[in-house]
Amino acid sequence: MFKQLLLIAFTFCSLSSYAKINELPEEFSDFSLNRDIKISYEDLDNLLEITVLDMGRSDRSSRKSKSSIGTRMKSHKNNDTALEANRFLFEAVTKSEIKDGFHKIRVSLEKVPDEISLNELSLDEQLAYWLNLYNTAMIEKLIEHYPVRDTEDLLFDDDSILDEEFLTVAGYKLSLNDIQHKIVFEKFGKKKPIVMYGFYQGNIGSPNLRNEAYKGSKVYHQLVENGEEFVNSNRGMQIKRKNRLYVSKYYEQTESLFTDFETELREHLEDYAEGQMKSDVKYAKRFKIDIENWNITDLFGTERSFGASASTNPAAMLNAVVSNSDIPVSADGSSSGMGAVNVNFINDSIMMRTMDFGRFSPEMLEKIKKLNLKRQDNSGSVEIKDLDSNN
Known about the structure:
Number of strands: 9
Radius of gyration: 24 Å
Helix content: 40-55%
Shape: globular
Mean pLDDT: 81
Distance between the termini: 35 Å
Number of helices: 16
Strand content: 5-15%
Strand order of the largest sheet: 7-8-9
Order of helices and strands: HHHEEEEHHHHHEEHHEEHHEHHHH
């Protein structure tokens, strides 16, 4: 009877650990010094390049309310941040088969540990992996819930997509919050809080979604770019009225990265601030977390919320997309959904590259094969040694 109870208890514990991680398991906590094994993200690169519009660095300008004959546009509370952050073609993607590409890539990334244990990868390679999995899964969830304009409830309501355990990696059920806080922040963020800028959350007030995948070979360079862009934008921080420093509410999610939150965050902001803002941050007399913009970073949906009178109107943005991606567009630049963009062309060109995509090149697979054989040999020699010692 005791043995049966013990077995039941053991099974229950195993199921619990499978359902949720409370601390980093060995598969996620360990790492290799070998930098030879690199994961390929060519398919994700292709998909992001054609669906993400890089808006460039903020000039800290704001969108001013304008009046026209017979019309008065109301001032919007997010005028300071309305023109910032990269845009994603949500409306277009959700109306096409492209959305399936993000799902397929997410599933493919989950299967990476089937080919090689994550702890056989270098730290930089692991960090790039977790960021790409998080952002791909986030896009997939946002597409699933679209149309949505305000993402706050979607992210922080009782049924938050951040807490939904819909990911499975190496046998562990994970949520987006698990990846951000229990894996990346715990493993990488204590010494390098710059990792906070790798998590896109679908809204203007979050760090940027890049138009490329993270790569182990340059992941920290990519994160620094994201950090510099965010800190030096109106949605990152602002100085207002008598040296008062206002910062983004996104930083509330990163409190665990700092021992003394306000003091260390201020030092972090000063490090990444540029020009006069560096001095303004240092000597600011008051500190307040107050900046937010939960509007989804949808290229056309976001623009329609404010009208299209600015230089960043949809037609101009489409031209930018075309110049970057060679997407066929009609002459008038009009849009209904993706409208002018030839969706079939995108489907054909992208979906062909996302189907059955391998994460490792033939050269990488050969290295992985040798690595696995070496590990099996080492395991075998240990077992023989133990047997010999028992004799």
